[in-house]
Amino acid sequence: MDAQTKKGLLDVCVLSVIGRGDSYGYQIVNEITQTVDICESTLYPILKRLEAAGNVIKYSRTYNGRLRRYYSITEKGRERLKEFDAEWQELEKIKEFIRGEGK
Amino acid sequence: MTAKEYLKELKKALGGVPLKERREVALYFKELIDEEIASGKSEQEAVSVLESPQSVAQSFLPKAQKPAGARIMPLIGNGVSVFVLSLLAFAFAAGAFAAACICVALILSAAVLFFNGIAALGFSQIGLGLAFGALTSVFAGLGAIMLKLVSAQLRSDNFAPPAFRWKTFALDAAVIFIGATLFASTVGSGGQSPAGEKFLVEKTRSFSAEEPLKLTADNIDLKIALGEGDAFGFVYFEDDRFSKAVNYSSGELSIDDGGFLSKLSMFFIRGLCLFGNEDKLKSASLTIPADYPGRLMLELGTATVKIDGGSYGEIDMEIGSGEVMIKGALIDKFEAEIQNGKILLDGVTSDSQSLGVKNGKIEISGGKSGKTGAQIGTGAVEFDGAYADEMDVKIRNGAVRGQLAGILDEFSVNVCLGDGDTNLESKQGGKRKLDLSVDRGEIYVDFQTVVEPTDRFFDTRSPGDEFNTFETSSDDEEQTDSEDQR
Asked: From CA B477, how far away is CA B447, in angstroms rounded?
């Protein structure tokens, strides 16, 4: 897969994981790796990007004596997911067109 | 690899990343390790599932610093040579080193000033002590700020200015401000005593008969030579390390074989300074020039003070227990106060004399004084040809007796006797004044026209001896010495 395409998809993957409920780094990695091969050092920049874009917010909480930094999706993040759905439908049409199924 | 080692290596590998980002990344990976461990893995296993620190670092380092196709030059712009970059790096390193040196110097200066301030306080020079303390504060504050700036700059590898923390800066600035203000006000208000005008060591310790100076250590050789116009305070301080001869003249103090603190003391002490525990001192002697126009003040616990000849500006003594014996000296102003003991003056010439003995005796032979005041709690005042334009004697229990130089007609006499006998009655008429007041006791005073000087107190001085010696000793020694001298 093209790197840029994969990068965009990974952002949405992470956002969708967080959209299902507040989550933290370790949990996000574990969930995504069930579908997509992603390493820890890849996730971190994605989280930073999403945070910088205002799609998620970060907060810390202690759990069993260790610090967890949770990420929570924002309204803007949810809008982004909806945008992705719309974009994906366009992609489906493009795919159908490429395969000649739309004709 | 342990988690600690992993994180340490990661931080090291992230050297080119800004400090804040580096901490964030390290925290992120620590969180991952903690979660792995919490899921049941060992520390080593938790670390092993992660990417290597170097691999992680590659994801975060700016592209310019990546090994593959890396280009350093764009950091400072295209066309800048390696030579210029090297020069800049060298200049930065040199600057950082110089700044660090300045910081260390400032902090060392602060330490030196601090110790000087403490020492000055020990000598009752409160002003100087505060001034040094204030300077300490200023230097320490400046040093702290510079150190923080330098260390922040060194930690930051991207040449960016360090994060500015108002709280830290405000604290340092406050320290400097308070110190500077204190220093200015202290020096401005005359914290430093002008040499020659004022006694530098005004009051170091009060002694009394109940609490005399404790003298218990071995003898020390303590000699002080005073130059013309020097002020001097005789203070007993002794330390094992500094029990050496002390020479003081013309504003310069030197301590033979002295130690670090003693040398430092030259900054602010114009007088004797031996640090340590005065309780250890057993005896000491003070040698001053025979002709000393300055002021000499002695505060002694148990002491025998002898002055044989010479000329002095002012002598002021406070002695707990002992004797003061002065012969043939010229003293502009003489004050002596003894709790228990004697004051013996023989041929002493003064503008004024103020003598006080709580329990003991005052003997005045010959000499001449503009004004003599003598007070006794219990004891006697004895004259042997003493001369004074104004003589004022007050005794609570005891006697005043002997012969005054002159004839009765020269005196205006005022006798005040509570309970006792007297051979004198009050009268008016003479230019000289004689006030005698005895609560309980007797007054027998005669007059004589010619007085031969006596030589009761002292051995003859050696020819060429230009110094007088003041001695203090322990009780036992003092008794022996006094008897021998007599």
From this structure: 38
> What are the structure tokens assigned to B296, written together?
């000499």
For B230, B287, B333, B409, the CA distances from B250, given in Å and listed in that order, are 6, 15, 22, 49
Hey, is the C-beta of B257 within 8 angstroms of any chain A C-beta?
no
The count of CB pairs under 8 A between chains A and B is 43
Angstrom distance (rounded) from CA B285 to CA B220: 8
Q: How far apart are CA B254 and CA B246, in angstroms?
A: 6
Q: How far apart are the first and last CA of chain A?
A: 26
Interface test with B, best of A10, A40, A70 (most B CBs within 10 A): A40
- Rounded to two decimals, the ipTM of the complex is 0.83
- Encode pLDDT of B140-191 as tens digits: 777 777 777 666 665 554 444 445 566 666 777 777 777 776 666 555 444 3
Residue B132, chain A, CB below 8 Å: the answer is: no
Residue of B nearest to A62 (CA): B31
**Residue closest to B202 by CA, chosen among B319, B299, B300:** B299
Structure tokens at B313: 């500006």
Helices (H) and strands (E) in chain A, counts: 4, 3
Q: Is B239 in contact with B277 (CB distance < 8 Å)?
A: yes
CA distance, residue A67 to nearest chain B CA (Å) = 7
Nearest to B16 by CA among B70, B94, B88: B70
The overall pTM is greater than 0.80: no
Task: Confirm if A51 and A71 have CB atoms less than 8 A apart.
Answer: yes
Closest-CA distance of chain A to residue B59, Å: 7
| Residue B63 DSSP one-character state | G
Cα B475–chain centre separation = 28
Residue B346 contacts residue B362 (beta carbons within 8 Å): no
In this structure, are residues B385 and B365 in contact, taking their beta carbons and an 8 Å threshold?
A: yes
Distances (CA, A) of B392 to B41, B310, B387: 101, 26, 12
Q: Taking a C-beta distance cutoff of 8 angstroms, is the pair B377, B357 a contact?
A: yes
User: Phi/psi of residue B78, each to 5°?
Assistant: -70, 145
